[in-house]
What we know:
This protein is mainly alpha-helical. The protein has two domains: 1-85, no CATH class; 87-217, no CATH class. It is 67% helix and 3% strand. The protein is built from six helices and three strands. It has helices at 3-22, 62-81, 88-107, 110-128, 146-171, 176-215; strands spanning 33-34, 48-49, 59-60. A three-stranded mixed sheet has the order 1-2-3. Helix 1 (3-22) runs parallel beside helix 2, helix 4 (110-128) packs antiparallel against helix 5 (146-171) and helix 5 packs antiparallel against helix 6 (176-215).
Amino acid sequence: MSAEEAGATSVARAVNRDYIDGRMTAYYNWPLVAALYPNTYFAFNGLAVANQPWSGHYSIAKTAWVLAHTSQFAQIGWQYLRKQPIGSLQLLSVVLILASGSATLLTKDATFIMLKPSIIYCIVGAVMLKRGWMNRYLPERAAPVADVATTFGYVWAGLMFASAGLNIALALSLEPKTWAAVMSGWGLFSKIGLFLIQYAWMTAVGRRRAAAAVAVP
């Protein structure tokens, strides 16, 4: 067993025991990127390994896959064992990780890797077309504006389909580094922007409805 595999195995064992013994569910992995010489003790402790950072080369460490397995699979497993309901988006995330990850490893094609997010966006968008999917994630105080959340559920689906189309256009016209930078920015800021719009809209509607209810004799 290599040093990297041994480290990843230890992390997996520690995370499992921490949850079983202490119900711990949050962790910090330091360093995020292991930019260390290969002969040092912690050379493979990062989620990514870049022991020659000046060259621009890096690889995803086995520890990253250990934590991905824990965060995407273990939660559903514990919920299943405790007979708790499992959301459709949670199940979808597992399927997407298995399918897209396997396809990437098998094809090793740059164009496919760039187009793959469009497939994922379309699948997520299709799931988000289910009426009221967002309502189960809302706090109780948001119940008076559940209908607004239902509408925004369709808006989120529209964002997913729009992102899929944008990704196809950029993947076929940009080189990989530029594509990665643009889509990373779009993925982050589009979701933050829509979240803020939804929060402001639902808050305004909720306050207006609360004021109208008080005004009714």
